[in-house]
Amino acid sequence: MASTQVETVSTVADKAKLVLAAALVLGALAGFYLVAKQGPIAQWAVLVGGIVAALVVFGISEPGKQLVAFARDAWREVKKSSLAYAQRSGADDALRVRLCCRHGLVFVAHRQDARMGVL
Predict the structure, then answer these.
(1) Which of 3, 25, 71, 78 is most open to solvent, judged by the fewest CB atoms within 10 Å of its CB?
(2) Residue at 3 is within a domain
(3) How far is residue 24's CA from residue 26's CA, in Å, rounded to a whole number?
(4) Residue 11 · residue 37 · CB < 8 Å
């Protein structure tokens, strides 16, 4: 019986990027409270800016790229399964499924279909 090995390669640079992203989020939270005297616009600008910077740093790291690839694959599978349901059910449901997929919603089957065991 052959065993498959999954090897996770994580470089020091990727770990540093993840630590930097976490530090940026913590810095954004701290900055939100430190600039309280300057008003809510400054507070929210610091918070949103820090979180966006953290997302950018996370996005350029290897784990961030893998997460984005996983999310794309998962979304593709959701669209395929919901469109397969639409083809099984009918024209009215097909339109609802397409609208749900287009707006980023997960399609939930009607109660009637759930009672019949069709999901």
Answers:
(1) 3
(2) no
(3) 5
(4) no
